[in-house]
From TrEMBL:
SMART domains: HTH_ARAC. It holds the Pfam family AraC_binding. SUPFAM superfamilies: Homeodomain-like (SSF46689), Regulatory protein AraC (SSF51215). The keyword S-adenosyl-L-methionine does not apply. The keyword Transcription applies. It comes from the Bacteria. Keywords: Activator, DNA-binding, Transcription, Transcription regulation. GO terms for molecular function: DNA-binding transcription factor activity; sequence-specific DNA binding. This is AraC-like DNA-binding protein. Residues 207-304 form the HTH araC/xylS-type domain. InterPro entries: AraC-bd, AraC_XylS_family_regulators, Homeodomain-like_sf, HTH-like, HTH_AraC, HTH_AraC-typ_CS, Tscrpt_reg_AraC-type_HTH.
Amino acid sequence: MSQIADVDTGGPEQVPVSTRLSTHEVLVRSQETTPLGPGDKARIWRHPGLEDVEVLQGSYQNYEFAQHFHTVPAIGVVDRGAMSTYCQNATHILPTGTVFLLNPGEVHAPKSATENGWGLRVIYLEKEFFQSRAEDLGFEVPQFVKPFVQDAALAASLLRLHRKLERDADTLNIENDLADVFTHLSERHIREPRHDSAIRDERNKILRVKDYLHSYYWKNISVEDLAEIAQLSRFHLMRTFRRDVGLSPHAYLTQIRVEAAKKLLSEGASIVDVASDIGFTDQSHFTRHFKRMTGVTPGQYLPQWRPNQGLAHKLAE
């Protein structure tokens, strides 16, 4: 029985974008560990007053993310150098100051666009948090219009908010900046998604496959399993899935496992147990995929949930 494997479809087309505060708790929860590689470092944390907001700061020289997506809205800014990223079937070059607004499920793969490296600051908003803020501004089902925009005012607001989430323990002060960001987003960059009256049969079949992967991600799943669920040939399934989702079934399954791992780690599970429970063959295999999709290792992800243990915790790269 053959296992799910990625299919190389070749390189995408290049498309340039026209483009006195109590800090202890916040800083402890964003404990830095060994860099990912020469010139690469990243940290991820949650502000103690905003548990529905996850924050990432990364500075990379040679690091390349795997193609991946987020299950929650992600907003951020390129704050150093130039970033190259695959998104929507093309490769985009994002200079310093570019804002990225990624809807859940938007496949992307950041890396450096030059030999000088790049940096970014990202804010991940839990779906319920994002929904409630958007509803306050009159949106029932909010969706970002474009994944990348040149908007100097929004970039400045996001950078100010991100830095406060890093070192400002005053939640009321942060909420003020959050309101500014959402107001700006609602005026220029959020819309209601279009609803087609008829959904194609193939799309329903792919939805069944996705539901199965979400329900049984911990199992050893084969291409034949998925083809039977979709009632499509193996080749037709692989081609249609990649067209509709933006990833191969194997890459999508790996993403689901990484998201499940984040949840288990936040609930107190050990890295070793998580690796075996979610379907990875071993801990090193798990760590490699986790790092490629999140930009940090599982050991770097732990301190935001275990601030006291995080100071001493270090994971070999």
